[in-house]
Amino acid sequence: MSPGFKRGLAGALLAAAALACVVWAGVAHAEVAAADPIDTAMRQCAARADRSSTAGQVQCIEAANDAWQGAIDAAYQPVLANAPSETLRRGWQESQRRWLAWRKEEAHLLHAVFATTEGSSYAMSAANLRLQPVRDRALALRKAAAQYQQAALALQAGDAPPAAQRTPRCSADAACQHADFDLNRYYRKLRAKLPVRSRPVLMRAERSWVAFRDATGPLIGSQDRVDLIGARIATIKRFSETVGND
User: Fold this and answer.
1) Would you give the DSSP letter of residue 167?
2) pTM of the predicted model as reported, rounded to 2 decimal places
3) Every domain of the chain and the residues it spans
4) Which of 28, 116, 155, 201 has its CA 20 to 30 A from that of 126?
5) Spatial contact of 190 and 241, defined as CB atoms under 8 Å apart
6) Taking Cα atoms as reference points, which of 216, 241, 236 lies closest to residue 101?
7) Which residues contact 10 (CB under 8 A, 6 or more apart)?
8) Contact, 79 vs 148, CB < 8 A?
9) pLDDT of residue 18
10) How is residue 50 annotated by DSSP?
11) In percent, how much of the chain has pLDDT > 70?
């Protein structure tokens, strides 16, 4: 078996796994199990005979991406409307601003990574990597919207709202520090593998993501923050494994 054939086979297997990663991502969390209508629709789309090609599978992922983007828009306004304080409301506005800025920079990084590959099989992997952060953001906003609505209803009923969570600084949270260490390790690995001309793209994307993380961290619980960093680790690791493949 020639090295070229092996690389091509590896690319095809990666593409086949990409959709599965999207479909099953988050199933370990009960509140985001695969019963979500958007995930269900994507699985049904992927199972259609006329979507069996790489292009067809990418269409299914992109349709899910659009649906999750709509879920972001639908959840964001209730978060602002029901935020228990002006500080939290402004915090979520800043988080969303940083999120949008990061997504713009990340698009350039994704392009730089996949520009080093050859073969249509990687189109699915790229589509997956575009989708997953959008899905994660929608679920985070849904969770915040549900929590704030619960607190608002408790106040209306004259009951004490749920106690506000206090998220310690990452430097005071061992799990957060460990996740940050792993992220920096994979970041350095990706930087070393990228072409020199693409390294500034990585630097801008990572700075933008750090700004998003820092704006979002105080708004969510400690475990959610670790999950946020963990998702970034998974993305950077995937980028590192992808660079230079053909």
Assistant:
1) P
2) 0.84
3) 3-159+168-242
4) 28
5) no
6) 216
7) 245
8) yes
9) 45
10) G
11) 83
